## 1
Amino acid sequence: MPLSYASTSASSAPARRVIVWLRHDLRLHDHENFATLGGLVEEVLPVYVFDPREFAPDRFIGAPKTGPHRAAFLRETVLDLQARLRAIGSDLYVAHGPPETVLPDLAQQFGATEVRATREHTSEEIAVEQAVEKALRPVARLRLTEGLLLHHPDDLPIRLADLPLGFSKFRLQVEKKLRVRAIFAPTNALPAYPVRLGAGAVPTLAALTGHPDAEDAAEIDPRTAHPFRGGETAALARLEDYIHGRRLLGTYKQTRNGLVGEAFSSKLSAWLANGALSPRQVYAEVRRYEARHGANDSTYWLLFELLWRDFFRLVALRVGTAIFRPDGLRGQAPRPHQRPDRALFDRWTQGRTGEPFVDAAIRELRLTGWTSNRMRQNVASYLINTLRLDWRWGAAWFESRLVDYDPCSNWANWQYLAGTGTDAREGRAFDIRQQARAYDPQGAYQRYWAG
């Protein structure tokens, strides 16, 4: 059974002091919890809490849940948000510890009677919300809003309990009936920041990860196809450049399966994953492009992929911890039968399988924190169908390594390829050699990452 949303306490009295707890919504544009504070709020405390559990070893392979590249991208994002808040006369309070401990103490110290947060959709994050709500009860109410999806769940033409587990059926039922709500105006002013509380320093990478060599581990290979920094500033600049500056959106469907360079796809996923970019802002810019230059298959395809993103989030909300189960959403055994060969798995993670197309992608991911969607599918299929290893090992390694890790998309896509997820049909195995001939016919990508 899925975990339910954390509850929110009702109160008719407006809060004079409010905490805005930021998690995967690290931006000032299209942010309901900032935009709707109202004139009766005297002070607002924006808070980011580095939860040590998010950097601890995972339960499948023992890798840090947040690896060095994503930790660096997150740190850049928090620093950028702090700078943007300071530019409008506010600040970002940075803390370290379990949110269910940090936030009640902070609410009591600050005198806050309301804590606002953006609602999450996966089991671990919902469990934290529930723990925070419970711990806050003697002090403040927790108010949750939606902000991570393109489409608000309340606008679905079907109940969440009736959500189909296949994307095609979901799309058929909802695509033409859905609307996208208007975005909230960018936040350019906030009620007073309580300077008496200070702000706290953003921890170093070494402090975050617990490894003294974290800076070296997070260094990005200059060959990367994802040469971007974390933060809303970089996100909005990329969005503007990709859609309006170079008008790359207009050929997105034709170029999206590219392998080398930054221009073949939007590369917006990392900012969407940590909330430095709103999916509704992306939607608004696509529609603005269409108004100027006309709609085509490429403009539709980017929005189509945002619908896939919503679908995986809604599935995760519906099924809860089932997205992490080896037998998946329908209680099926993964195909083919899996074997627990850790030495073989380690060779896969090191890019030493002997299959050049797969090894190139793994090296790219190890050295940069990113590889294309096409290559993610290839290396996942190879691990599942050729090496016959536990698909959850691969998903956990992606969680640690990907700079754009999103729990819903990552785990649902791995389940999908293992035949235990949102589409349980047979035949998800990729012919790796055929894929290499189709997408890297001259071997340029393989040579690019051979060293």
## 2
Amino acid sequence: MPDVSQRVQTLVQLSDELLERLDRTASTRGVSRSQLIRALLDAALVDERDEIGRRLVDGYSRVPQSEGRDAWGDLEGWSEVVARRNLAALADEEEEGW
């Protein structure tokens, strides 16, 4: 948990019912309302990041990346062409005295 001096206060509007549930849960856990809110937000944001990772893994499991060619063409071949073009441009610059 970051140092208190590094925290920023924010205003959040809650319904009476949600506030009551929040206070009951905080009391049951023996923490302050603020501590509970921070913990719940942290858990939700971690879950969201984990869900994105799971979806990426699932997508690559269902449709694995092919070697070289894909929907846009031959990536390896394109990379080689670009590399040769860049090396030739550098050689031309050296000849011109750059």
## 3
Amino acid sequence: MRHEEYERRRRALEAQFREDLELLRAGYQAKLRALEMLWLAPPEALPPAVAVSETLRLSETLASSETLPETAQPPSETVAPPAPPKEIRRGQVREEIEAAFAELPEEFDRRDVIRVLGYEPPRATLFRVLEQLVVDKWIAVAWHSAGRSSTRYAKLSEPAEETA
């Protein structure tokens, strides 16, 4: 084998490796989106818990080339397509959080806020609004994030009146 052939084959292997990594990444992203949809879906939209846990258990143990058997596939009406991204105008997220403030539990995290809003605003926007609510004394940080645990917020007794 000459050096040119070696280099050509090496470049081809590297290109194939990059393509394989992209396929793996795309598969991971699809699984992550499906998991997030299950997490954010209202309980009444999901099939019975047994079917969901069985489907998840099966899908988590499959090799990359395997698929779920037809009988293990969740019914198509239970998996809703993701909602199109919502157009968000400046200040709208804060207004919507304030409007739904009573629906939040006494102690909550960002997932609770997303559930109450019904959509997921951009991450930076959500955390900026939560930080502003802390500054304005609507909420306080009850628990700072550490590792996989989310920052938890606590409602204060009465939201402070906004100053002009």
## 4
Amino acid sequence: MVRAAVALIGPDGRVRGHDTNPANGSTSWSMSQVLLGLLTRPHLVRGHDRALAALTVALLDVQAPCGGWPLRIGDDPGITFAFYPALALTRLFRNSSRRHAAAEASLRATATHLAEAVTAPGIPLVERVLGQFALERVTDALGMASPVPADHGRQVLAACLVDGRELALRDHLIVIDRQPAWHSLTWHPLLYLCARRWAPPLDRVCSLLGLRLIDGFDRSLRAWTGPARAVAPGAGTSWASCLALNAVSALGRDLAAHGVTPGEFVERARALVREPYEYDVAISFSGSDRAVAEAISDALKAAGLRVFYDRDHEHLLLGEDLAVRLQETYLEQSRFAIVVVSRAFVASRWAGNWEWRAVQARMQQQRSGYVLPYIMEDVVVPGLNPTIGHVLAAERSPEEFAALVIRKIRALPVRDSSGCRNDDTRLNDLGLSSAAD
């Protein structure tokens, strides 16, 4: 396989043409994807240094003076086209026994270009995801401080949702006249490979991307068609299937690391499509108990739950009527409310008054459990029945309490309103078992 890939590289470093167009081998995409693929097996490419060097030089020659990457020399550089060159040169830089000076200089220029691009207004969302991922990979490899804030990746991920619920990502059209139609679309489910850098698999964005990735598998073709389904119906594509298998493999590893079975993941992801709540949990607490609330929030978010914790939403709360906004959050938008109970909570103007009123109203609306009390001090909270199941801080740490909340939410029954129960068959087709290993 390696010999066949190396045989694609000509003496000038350009890749043999494809898609009936000999010029396609001169694109930065063609060269960088071949280089990236070969460098994933460094122990197998020994003895092919001359071909790799020629390919690297040809790829570097395509880079624009601004540090960006066009598809071909003379084209306009774009974030999408910088993605694969950045990943390939990053791997080259890391794998090289010597500091690869040309690759390092190229990557530094790429980092500068990407930092400006991902923070510019009006950038398409798919390109922002690709650019941010590539930027972080480049800065990590170079050991340099990121030119964008440390939480920018999470901000990009949050932007992938409409109203915090619906996935805003769609296939992204790249208008290049000379590019074949099936290469002119970025297939958005593959962005799971990027999103997993910033969130666990049960995060809403990762869950919905993973579900679309799984649902993109065509059982009759036993392959993925990717965006080519619109221009070549009834045929699977090798490039989409290879990339999708890579993404599904990564999803499987992520689920195993978080103790989630594939069947559970699919059920949860399908539930999110129908999910009426914006948050899994909203946390109500007094200011003096913030350290406890933050520890609970961090543990819940690390497990992929959607949490309303005030400091994460300061930009949304700014300028709002807090009495109205908080009532909406606790009364309508949250599946559960965690209440950190203390004397300070009861005396608090906000937590013990406005938020608690909304919690009480919600408790009266539904019979099933809604409030999850974490008792810091033995104090009477008006309207909180002492027979409601609770956890004492003296017996459980905030992290242990959060673990119980996670287990409760994951144990919730999930019903597919469509009546379709083909998840096990689909997972088996993909090589994933719905049973715990």
